[in-house]
């Protein structure tokens, strides 16, 4: 999960003077506008970092639950309670990250329009800024898929744990099926996460290029 920590905000600290158009209206440089737009990514990255931590801790609990579950005399209630607490926290963090991403997506059209009205930027800089926004939106779409897949994985966790809770004679067939379904969900989630991380790297490269072009102009 380390890749989640690589926020797209490496250039947010860039400070460029506010320029003024011929008609007297202030115009913000393209790199400033783009990086102000994606400022939410910093908070989102922290949410995802916490999400990863809870995921690791729950995976440790999951392993313990399966190991203890092999013994019919084992009391799993405490472990199951802890696992479900992690699930609830992960849902909360996931929802917060989704909200932040959606806020940025809602503001993107206005930034595109603003970039189109800049009078002082070079054409190649404006083109690069639009490319950065394009890559951000592709990344945002993948994140939407990630959220859906993550929720389904948490649902699979909950179904499994409910089957293992409070039953003198647990249904092993149903439990084994639930374990398979859970593993399938997490495998799908891993593929989407890999895709998102790849797109994040591409976005960071494009955004760094935009900042370099702005500084050089």
Automatic annotation (TrEMBL):
<keyword id="KW-0175">Coiled coil</keyword>
<protein>
    <submittedName>
        <fullName>YkyA family protein</fullName>
    </submittedName>
</protein>
<keyword id="KW-0732">Signal</keyword>
<dbReference type="Pfam" id="PF10368">
    <property type="entry name" value="YkyA"/>
</dbReference>
<dbReference type="InterPro" id="IPR036785">
    <property type="entry name" value="YkyA-like_sf"/>
</dbReference>
<feature type="signal peptide">
    <location>
        <begin position="1"/>
        <end position="24"/>
    </location>
</feature>
<feature type="coiled-coil region">
    <location>
        <begin position="31"/>
        <end position="107"/>
    </location>
</feature>
<dbReference type="InterPro" id="IPR019454">
    <property type="entry name" value="Lipoprot_YkyA-like"/>
</dbReference>
